[in-house]
Structure formats: structure tokens, C-alpha cells
Amino acid sequence: MVDSVKLFMWEGGALYIGPLLDNSEHRHHAVQVCLGLDGPFRLFRSGEWSDERFAALAANESHCLDSKGHTVAIALLDGESASGCLSTQDLKAPDLADLQIPSNCEEARCFAEALIAPTQIHSHQRDIRIARALAHISTLETKRVTAAELADVACLSESRFMHLWREEVGLPLRRFLLWRRVMDTILAIIQGSDLTEAAHLGGFSDSAHFSRTFRETFGLSPSKLLRNSRFVQVSIEHIT
Fold it and tell me: Tens digit of pLDDT for each residue in 173-201?
């Protein structure tokens, strides 16, 4: 259904579309919702393999997935995000006829939302104090900042800032900053930096640190995913 691998990323979530071969059993921090777009995939969980067309995996649930050469859509939602706190047990496969392959991050977020609920993601007017904090974060090279510093930028007490931040952004500050650093690193890679240089630009100690963080978050290896970067379409959206 797609002529290349697509990876869309935004704070707290990602959508991967393409074939996937992952022969190692693993677990990661994100909730994972998988949909076979042109055929079933093989899934190993709870000690056995099964052929599936749709599956939802809780955060930190051990599993292994082989798409058998088919195209799969995999939505990854941070386990500490508003969407990632959902229960995966009662999720149902959406009607494929209702889904369109996304071409940008906004469409990808709606696609991911359709995998977990029949609702769309609606934008709202950002609280100006949180908007100031987000703008400040965007000016930082390695996205390292304390809650106290951001509270000063927002002209709020630290406790009030943290409450309003979670309410407005949907992610704890710590997880948000980690997503920003991961996305900055991926962006540097697709702009031509090697893995080591990109990891440093993203604020990671080295490429191994970034690769470990990426796999712990998504269950995918960044080097394998981006090895043939000309066949990978990456779209990154930052909250503003």
C-alpha cells in the first residue's frame, strides 16, 4: 500500500508504516497498536506466536513482531501520555476503508487516534504561559532545562506550572523533553549527520545512548530504520 517506509513523530507519539522484521523479543515504554494494511502479521506474546490483523500491546509488554513482508501501521504512544494511559484490552480493529495513508504529521496523529478511538485530535488555543515555555524550549540546543526555569519563564509557581503543563501538553515534562531530544536527533540524521554527531546534537552522550533510548521508547533500531534513508520518509511535528 505504500512505496516507501514512512515515519511520523510528534511529542508523545509516532506512527510507522511499512514492512517490519524484528526477530528479538523485547519490551518498550510506548503503548503499541498494530494494524496489517495488506495482510496479517505474526506476533509473539505470552509465550506463543499467532497471525493477527490487529493487536494492541500495553506499555512494557514483552513481544516480537514479524510483518511477513506485509505493510503494517504501528502507532506508538508514550506510556505516560494521555493516549498512552488507555486500556489496550478492549480496542477493536478500525475499518480499513475508513483509513487513508497519511502524508503529514497532522494526518498521522488522526490515523493513530483512529486506531485507539473513533475520535479525532482537536486543537485548542494554547495557554499563553505554556506557549512561552514551549517557545523557550525550542531555543535550547539540547533541550535540557528544569521545571523551575520554565516556571520562571511562564511566571508561575513551579507546582502550578507542572500541573498546567501536564494539562496543556499531555505529557510529563521529563518525557516531553526526551521526545524532543529524540526528534532533534532523528532530524539531524535525515539532514545528513552521522549517528554519533546527531546523538551529540540531540543531547545524548553518544550514539549508543541514543540508540538505547530510541529502542526503549519505540522497540525499533534507529540504525536499521534509517539505513536506507532515501527510502524513508520522516515527518516531525513539534508542539508550539
Answer: 998 999 889 988 988 888 888 889 999 98
Residue 74 in grid coordinates: 504501528
**Torsion angle of the four alpha carbons 106, 107, 109, 112, in this order, in degrees rounded to the nearest 10:** 180
Q: Which residues are registered as beta bridge partners of 236? A: 9
Residue pointed to by grid coordinates 506463543:
48
C-alpha grid cell for residue 5? 517506509
* Distance in angstroms (rounded) separating the CA atoms of residues 120 and 114: 7
Closest CA to 6 of 42, 51, 37: 37
- pLDDT tens-digit series, residues 202-226: 899 999 999 999 888 877 778 777 7
pTM for this model (two decimals): 0.80
Count of CB atoms within 10 A of residue 25's CB? 11
